[in-house]
Amino acid sequence: MREKVIYALGVAAALLLARNLYSIFMVLPDEASQGMIYRIIFFHVPAAITAMLGAFVAAFASIMFLVTKNFRYDSVAVSVTEVGLAFLAANLVTGSIWGRIIWGIWWTWDARLTSALVCWLLYAGYLMLRHAIEEPTARARIAAVFNIFAFADVPIVIFSIKWWRTQHPQPVFWGGGSIDPAMKSTAVLNLVALMLLAAVLVLIRLRQEEVQREIDSLRRYAHAVV
Amino acid sequence: MDTRNFTFMFYGFLAAWLILVVYVLMLVARERKISDQIKSLRSMMDFKDHK
Fold this sequence. Notes:
The complex is a heterodimer. Chain A is mainly α. Chain A has one domain. Helix content of chain A is 80%, strand content 0%. Chain A has helices at residues 2-27, 41-68, 71-102, 111-132, 136-151, 153-163, 181-225. By secondary structure, chain B is mainly α. Chain B has a domain at 20-51.
């Protein structure tokens, strides 16, 4: 059943991405001052929202693990965090390339960029921490606490452009900015496509994590029996 | 079509997709590692049965 869901979501994501790429490059009007580079926003913003949503899900799963001690929540937390980290990396890199053209610099230490980089480093640290702890229960418990701690940076990333004056532009979609309706609908549709893609990757990673857990417990059992 | 900054837009899309492709390749490598572990576990069990 899960295989069919993964295939169905994968096909839906591929079709929607193909439609959106056609729209981004062939249909949408040019931006007056930025030239072609503005088209990066259709990947940059949806990748950031997908990563932040992943952080919410991972924090919720971590809390649920600490409450219930059900390892399934631990598997969800690690799967979502890993996929979210890939999307956040894509967001940071596309933003840096856009900044090189529009601001003339690859990077600046303003509140939004810095907090997003710290967020990426925290979640990378979460994954490294998991590798460093051998015992499964201790690993899951400590990782869950660390994940909740890392989540404290997420509201700072989201609201930094409201709280401080930043080099990063103010929000267009939720800050009173205006955008061409065709551009807005393409951005929303690409957000849906990237979320479908993220869901496919999370489901595949989740299955791997569950199988790996099963293998580890069987191996311990086999060694104990000898 | 306005073709200003085409090169950097291309780099942006290329980098974003490369990151996702590398992650998918990591998933494929992990899948292989898991199937190798299952094989070694099976052979371990068979060895114990023969013993």
